[in-house]
Amino acid sequence: MAAATSRTRKGKIRWSKLYSFGCLRPSTSEEHPADRVGQLGFTRVIFCNEPYLHRKKPHKYPYNNISTTKYNVLTFLPRALFEQFRRVANFYFLLAAVFSLFSLAPFSRASLIVPLIFVVGISMIKEAIEDWHRFLQDLDVNNRTVKTRMSNGVFVDKPWKELRVGDVVKVNKDEYFPSDLLLLSSSYEDGVCYVETMNLDGETNLKIKRCLEASLCLNDDEEFSGFKATVRCEDPNPNLYTFVGTLEFENESYPLSPSQLLLRDSKLRNTDYIYGVVIFTGHDTKAVRNSTRSPSKRSRIERKMDHIIYILFSILVLVSLVSSIGSSLFLKHDMVDWWYLLLPDGSSLDDDDDLFFNPSKPVKSAVLQFIRALILYGYLIPISLYVSIEVVKVLQKMLIDKDIELYDDVTRKSVQARTSNLNEELGQVEMILSDKTGTLTSNQMEFRKCSIAGISYGGDITEVDLAASTRMNANLEPFEFSMDETNRATRSFELLDFSVSSFSAQNGNARLLKTEEPVIKGFNFRDDWLMNKNWIRGPNLSDITMFFRVMALCHTGIPIEDDNRKTDKLSYEAESPEEVSFLIASQEFGFQFFRRTQSLMVLKEFDPSSMEEVEREYKLLNLLEFSSSRKRMSVIVSNEDGRIFLLCKGADSIIFDRLADNGRTYEQATALHLSSYAEDGLRTLAFAYRELEAAEYERWNTTFTQAKATIGPEREELLEQASQMIEKDLILLGVVAVEDKLQKGVPECIDKLAQAGLKIWLLTGDKRETAVNIGFACSLLRQDMMQFHLSLSREAESNNEVKAMEEDILQQIQCSYKLLCEEGNNEAPYGLIIDGKALEIALRGNIKDEFLQLAVNCASVICCRVSPKQKALITRLVKQYTGRTTLAIGDGANDVGMIQEADIGVGISGMEGMQAVMASDFSLPQFRFLERLLIVHGHWCYQRISKMVLYFVYKNVAFGLTLFYYELYTSFSGEVLYNDWYMTMFNVMLTSLPVVALGVLEQDVSSDICLQFPALYQQGPRNVHFSWSRIIGWILNGVVTSLVIFLANIYILSPTALQRNGFVTDMNSLGAITYTCVIWTVNCQIAIITSHFTWIQHLSIWGSILLWYIFLLVYGALPPDLSGNAFQVLIGVIGPAPLYWMITMVVVVVSLLPYFVHITIQRSFYPMDDHVIQEMEKCLKKDDVRDNEMWVREQRNSQRSTSIGFSARVEAKVLSFSQQMQQKKLSIYRSVTNSPIYRSITRTPFS
Amino acid sequence: MTDPNRERYRIRETAFYLFTQQSLPACKPVLTPGWVITIFLFMGLIFIPVGLVTLRASHSVVEIVDRYDIECVPESSRIDKISYIQDDSIPKNCSRFMKVRKYMKAPINIYYQLDNYYQNHRRYVKSRSDKQLLHGRKYHDTSSCQPVELNNGQPIVPCGLIAWSLFNDSFTFIRERAELKVNRKNIAWKSDRDHKFGKNVHPFSFQNGTLIGGGKLYPKIPLSDQEDLIVWMRTSALPSFRKLYGRIEEDLDVDDVIVVNLMNNYNTYSFGGKKKLVLSTSSWLGGKNNFLGHACIIVGCSSLVLAIVFTLLHLKYRRPYGDTSYLPWNRKSLSG
Question: Which parts of the chain span the membrane according to its record (chain B) (predicted)?
């Protein structure tokens, strides 16, 4: 019942009467581009309520289902195959396999085709699984239901995917719009509704949409029985802010505007229900049109890997050329004499067509030999590299997904790596571009502090102060300026109260923990003075009362009675969460706003004189709406006594400009508070009022009404002027500070990321003040930072001349840059704040470079009022200009562009919207998980993958070159030393598992230590593990290894006997022995690389070696038909020979020696960061002292160089504290020494 | 605020949980100077003795090598050795004298060594049919044996270039007028004799064609007993190779002179190959080869040297274990 009444009450308010701007815009007044309807690009016709007409041509439009999958059942095979063979290496192996069908290949067909199928098959299965997940996600969206009118007039739940153009749907509160709808009517009488478009453009304030007057009557299920209308409008396009069309209804035509269009992916808020007609469906909707197909991203390492592959290819071509030339030389000069080959002499063509060895056609033979050699030395190209990397990445992804530290209890979601391609890229990020709302903040406002009549309340110490003072405790005596506790004025001046430092760290933490959980949502305020109504005993009673009245009256909110409420507390709904928090706060202070009618606002006020609650009605005379250009809002009310007040709230600068001379009593104190609030990252608003004479009001009201009635473009200007007239000579009451609640752990996370050397840019659609506040709140900005503000000057903006604007911005940039360069050595960091309009100019051709140069050199960059497109553009330019790895993180559809554009896109999955998550590469439930994701998993994955790739290169070079060396001994005839199946096994079985184990489980240091030394992360961006010198080094190591293995084997084994019985080695046994050495060497090499041995590593490494012997045994035990020349090679031939085992030992040691010497030298004399930290860890484990002095000191040292983040702020604060201390000490000293008592004391000899 | 899922997960503090949290118990070896020196010392101490033992084994082997390909051609024919060898009418007998310099204990392996003979040439290696060797004429597909596949439409057994070019020099050894007994059995790998060469396969139509390559086979003896062929068909890995011919099962004393009567049939003259006869005893490590021993000793010595060098370097430029001044942030502050 209560709900019903509230609804009806709400329904009675005609919002259009309350608002002065924007809303009530006579639709006829505007020039409407509706004439274009029907022309090219505006041809769409929609028959409302007759969806069946859209089933066939010419008005056939698609269903409302969307699909984000890459493949479907039919296209999967060809497209996935195409994707696979686009990789050079895979294509090469495909060619090799094709050649193997002819006699060209030196290997058997199966040994070439089987690995290829294996490798490609695994990759394709992975693709298929990933696409399947995408399909399931689509299915989830497509199966959401919406109430749709059926032909029998009943509204039933229908899945989104079955929605057709022309359907009439009813969307309830807090539901998403299933497609682009034309608003017909809403639960409000005047047909407005509130829409949250956060998913589309990231703006948090609600947008008002209004239906046409003509369709107002359609606000009930029954009304639609005979409803028929035709909409003619533009064709589907991605433009979010335009809509052109006409509605033909009851033989009249009405122009349509964007304010009638409800976009897919936005959400109905504060409105019980709306009716709408589906206009665009599925892929025609603006939201979907706006989203681009997510590009397939490749990590930096993978791109570099391509270059490595090219190098290996060049080696391959080189050795093949050597082989083919060598072969033809042999053929021409020597081979003709080798009678035992019975070479065709060219005269008898039919006898024998061995084209490879035809002395009469040496060129042709050489070409064929070249091709054969290309295939033969294919082992230089690691065929299984891609597949191993893919397997490793999938496992890494699984481990990331499973990490319990990345699990969010609240949302019950975990971090999800949505693509596994970019794991190692996480370890190389240098720039983070972050969205604000929903990413850093939780879009929740909390009332935190206020300053009334020059006294600050709720002035809790901030975390920065606390941390700074605990830090200072170490070298400072508790230093109390114990002022009189009752003297609130001085207390509030004493913001940097050093009594803080007397809290022990534990107490402080407990305090902070307590304050983190506010009892009332949106209200995190603690001050006994105000809360317990002690203020009535204090001074300035009337001002305080007035302050609360402004808070309770100057807003557009409405009270909501909860159905199941227990107390008499109300909850509120308003356009912005800020207003809600004010209303809640004023309710807590005893000024409960509890009813609103068309012209009345009713408060339950606490009357300080009678000490009891009274109900007071205020007549709402005018409401001057908030807008981003005005930055203020006022209401004009008359109280029961008939006194007229203008109550105003707004941005402090605006209000301070409009104060009356007698209204500036508290200006100084308030300004002080304002700056301290702002430094804490709180969003501030100033409250002021003014009493109006009745006559003055009347005079003004006529002007205002006139302005309101004006039709035409000058209307807004007139209204603006009118409000200017009345909003002046204000009396300042105070300021309030609300906290845009940061998500849990955000400042700490940013701090750690900053220590890891990452730069964080904030890109937000919100206004500058908000952005700056958040910059402070999450320590991206701090007070002693030099801030550059780039924005268009007013003249330039009004002229709207591109040239002038460009010059303006360029000048600003150059000025700032000059400043930055001049004081470049200065410790003070710089912050850059730029707004969307300026950014648009700054990102143009010639200014771009200068802008980016400036931006990159600033410690933090905040871009406000940027559109989704600009976000993407910035991301792209930063990526291109700096060449650094960028990570974009966001939660809404407005971040999709940026997420797709960045090297790594991260979506926040905590909120409801899925667009960002769908487009992202990683999804996190909370921003704070970014820390662990990057610093731990990123670091690990980077190390793992780079080690793995390098090892792969090494292993294949070491193996592949032995094939080549052998060619030198076979007159380049293309004979292979090893059995085909040995070679097939090489990449597939015998060396693959240790690499996978390395790639999945290797840790240079444990996760705790990664987090304690974020600076270790810098290895990734500096790319120490995958530099060209390392790559070349590993290739050389492979060359050396192959040489050692091959030469040692042939010199030891040839030509003498292998064992006591005098048998000599033949090709088969030499092959098996050499191969044994290769297997041992490459597997031992990986054991040297590995620094973290779990049983899995042990098993895989030693198991691989064992597997080789098992394979040899089993394969050799097969009948000779199958095993060929490997028949009983182990037990019959090489096994019994002691020489075999000795060779293995010696060759392995010798071939590993160069690398071993290298790392011993490096470790001993040029250690890398991880080496030292490993050693430190080892040291400490011995002592078992975690908070060892050295440990802590190093941790501190590693943090030193950052200029943003919490620690940096604390650092700066400590500095400023100690300076102030110094001053205070000095002043006290002076005052003491100057005091007569002191003088008298000093004069008196005490001793 | 605890989630039952999470709790359940935590309770399973099993290996799998530890695995997913990447916190499996692990051994994390850190290469400390102490370890480095120990490893190098250890390697030195292992490799030098091993090398010495190997060298000793190698030195215990006595080897007599005699190149006979030139000497066995009469002076008059040395200008055109090819026509000499190809002329069937000239007898190819030849006698060589070998002096035993060191006591040789039986069994003494007799090898013939061919140099510059590419038995590992691809065309050559592939030209055989393992199935035919095992199954004889029952196996018809001899396409792999090109170009020595058919003779007058009949398959050749054994087919292929390898068999066709069978080495056919023969040796007899006489010491003090008595012929030394040469055991020609057991010169091939047992696995080959038992499983790769058929017991019921007899040479058929072998060396009957227009082009005759090397040696002939006894048509009556099954392939599994024709050990010369089996040895020959184990193609050598390198262009210079030895193959076992037989064993002398009597000890040879110092200063014994052995007369070798050989039939110099095999044509290595067309391609300038060398033919050598080798008598060699064997040790537990096989034949005479100093390379392994030298390699071991070199590796061992260099390890010792490295151990000493590292010790000295550490004494001089000692970097304290876990020295923090090498950390990047400290280094940065040092440099500027």
Answer: 34-55, 291-313
Q: Is B235 helix (H, G, I), strand (E, B) or coil?
A: coil
Q: Hey, of B105, B285, B310, which one would you mutate to test binding to chain A, going by the most A CBs within 10 A of its CB? A: B285
**Option in A106, A354, A1001 nearest B123 (CB):** A354
Residues B283-293: pLDDT tens digits?
988 888 899 99
Instruction: Answer for the pair B43, A1160: CB distance below 8 angstroms, yes or no.
Output: no
Q: In Å, how far are A474, A679, A820 from A495, measured between CA atoms?
A: 21, 12, 31
Q: Which residue is closest to B194 within chain A, CA to CA?
A: A1120
pLDDT of residue A947: 92
Predicted pLDDT at A502 = 34
Name the token pair of A1047.
Answer: 């030469």
- Give the nearest partner residue to B124 out of A340, A402, A1124, using CB atoms: A340
* pLDDT score for B64: 92
Please state, in angstroms and rounded to a whole number, the distance separating the CA atoms of residues A486 and A502.
20
Note the maximum CA span of chain B.
Answer: 106
First-to-final CA distance of chain A: 86
Of A898, A848, A1031, A931, the C-alpha closest to A309 is A1031
| Contact of A1074 with A990, CB cutoff 8 Å | no
If you ran DSSP here, which 8-state letter would residue B107 be given? P
What's the confidence (pLDDT) of residue A482?
34
Nearest to B30 among A339, A970, A1175 (CB): A1175
| Sheet strands (E) in A228-367 | 229-233, 245-249, 252-256, 261-262, 267-269, 273-280
Question: What is the enclosing helix (H) or strand (E) of A941?
Answer: helix A939-969
Nearest CB among B28, B186, B237 relative to A1054 is that of B237
Distance CA B149, CA A458 (A): 103
Known active-site residue A435:
yes
Considering the entire predicted model, what is its pTM? 0.82
Using H for helix, E for strand and C for coil, what is the string for A748-815? HHHHHHHHCCCEEEEECCCCHHHHHHHHHHCCCCCCCCEEEEECCCHHHHHHCCHHHHHHHHHHHHHH
Give the strand pairing for A759-763 and A731-742: unpaired
Residue B286 in contact with partner chain A when CB distance is under 8 A: yes
- Can you give the pLDDT at residue A495? 36
- Under 8 Å CB-to-CB from A506, ≥6 apart: which residues? none
pLDDT at position A15:
54
Could you tell me if B134 lies within 8 Å of chain A, comparing CB atoms?
yes
The one catalytic residue among A167, A265, A435, A497: A435
Which residues, given as ranges, of chain A have pLDDT below 50? 1-12, 20-32, 349-351, 474-518, 1184-1186, 1244-1247
- Does B275 touch chain A if contact means CB atoms closer than 8 Å? no
Interface contact B52, partner A, CB < 8 A: no
Cα separation, A584 vs A579, whole angstroms: 9
Neighbours of A10 (CB within 10 A): 19
Q: Are A1088 and A1156 in contact (CB under 8 A)?
A: yes
pLDDT of residue A205: 67
Relative orientation angle of helices A505-516 and A463-473, to the nearest 10 degrees: 170
Q: Is B107 on the interface with A (CB under 8 A)?
A: yes
Euclidean distance between CA atoms A1244 and A308, whole angstroms:
86
Using an 8 Å CB-CB cutoff, list chain A residues near B10.
404
pLDDT of residue A1201: 55
**Which has the closest alpha carbon to B272: B124, B94, B115, B88?**
B115
pLDDT of residue A565: 54
β-strands A429-434, A885-890 pairing: parallel
pLDDT of residue A503: 36
ipTM: 0.94
Output the pLDDT for position A1031.
Answer: 93
CB spacing of B32 vs A1167 below 8 angstroms: no
